[in-house]
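We now fix the convention by which a protein and its fold are recorded. Here is one such record, which you should read through line by line:

>
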Amino acid sequence: MNRALPYVTPLVPAFVVIGFFVWFANWIPQTRWEPPKAQEISASLTPPELAQIGKTIVRQRGCLACHTIEPGAGVKGGGRGPNLAGIAARRAQGAKGGPGNLVDYLAQSLYEPGAYLVEGYANIMPPSISAPANLGYEEAVAVIAYLQSLGKAATVKVGDVPKPAASVRSAPSAGAATDDPVAMFTALACEGCHSLKTGETKVGPALDAAGMKQAAAERGMSLEAFLMESIVDPKAYERKGVPSGVMPADYGTRMNATQLQRAGAIPRRARAAAMMPGALRLPLATRAFLVLAGIFLLLKLLRPVIPGSVIVLYMGFAIAGIVIHITLRDERIREFADFFIAESAGEPVAIRIQRWGLLAVVPLLIGWSVYDALRPTYAPPVEIFQRHPTVGEEILGSIKVPDWVAEPAKWSPESVAQGKVLYEANCAVCHGEKLDGKGPAAEGFRYPIRPANFQDAGTIAQLTLPYVYWRLTVGGIQNQFNSAMPRWTTPADDPEASSLHSYDFTADEAWKVIMYLYRATGFEPRR
């Protein structure tokens, strides 16, 4: 026992420290995400209940990738499909085309969208009862009820809408009658979601050379194989920032073998880049240097000015990323090393110039960076910025939390819903509809001032209810902390003073907004 004691004793503080951090990590408020619940639709649901389910379906099935819901924005609304806001009112005013009855018109738009096209729009919408939406009958009724509610009360119930004809449901999707790549691009309505112009993003990614080659490289595939996979199985790889599940998955059955083989020639620029002679491509070392130089210049020229220490940190990340990229494959390592050590008599002069240029320029840049980092510099004082300004306990102690607010478990859905309406009307412009601090006006604030991201566990999850109430109603613009948050009540000692906006919250309204913030983010107020 005495022999084992010297070995066991050092383990005790180690377990204590580990146990403390495990406890602390579990004590911190956690964000919990739950999968969406399956929508249960029955004939007993009322039209308003169906409309709520239809609203969820419209957002989940990719409808808003082409349509918009913008009251007062006109028919087009800036989307690839008609503006859905006020569609009931437009039909009631006698808009021409399609069935006169609103329900029949909406049903036709879902079952056979190509039967009638609003002027100015292409026939790019697939039937909603097929891929990618794959709506069932009850789901289609729910969507119709929701569209009805955008301008008038929903009245439709399950059974009021005719089911799609058997010929519509069983008819094969229309394919392209040609194997010419350009004609197929038009016939299959690819231009509705994709562009052949570099950097022009519609619903799906642009089919330009650089983007297609980069995506194929990320998949570790040739360009032809990647294009084939993207057409036949579009869900196999979906790029970030592109709506998921929007591209129909039935092109493999709508196109024959010849069409699929020639579909790789649709993005002609990508095909031309893939066939570019290797001698015209820059060596890997040169490309790596240009990437680093571009990042450095961007950071130097970016305004507001980024501190030198931050630039060094970013450049370290960039160098690490390039090293990882080069060392992931043996052929890249050989290509990089051969550029410097495998000089041949017959190599192009341009390659030699690049080699000796890099061997001369890189040491000079490193030397200049060291000098620039060590030479004396003068900088203005650091700006004071505090996300949560400090307030005295006497102020917070004077704030009485109402009984109907004090217990989050007893918050009524009606109060939370009213808080949501108030938030969306007054707060979302800065803090965003998703409460992530990315509202339309967020980019207009000068760094480091940014609207708070309530989805971050470091904001309201760390605050008590009295503090959040004070910050919203009284602790508005804090000049000493460089805050841009206005106070949302008129000061009690100066009823005539402006609160910098046209609307003041009452105490009850402020508490309802706070309730909505916590309920929508899934956090609980700090005790």
Notes: The two ends are 47 Å apart (CA to CA). Confidence is low (pLDDT under 50) at residues 268-280, 497-502. The chain is about 45% helix and 0% strand.
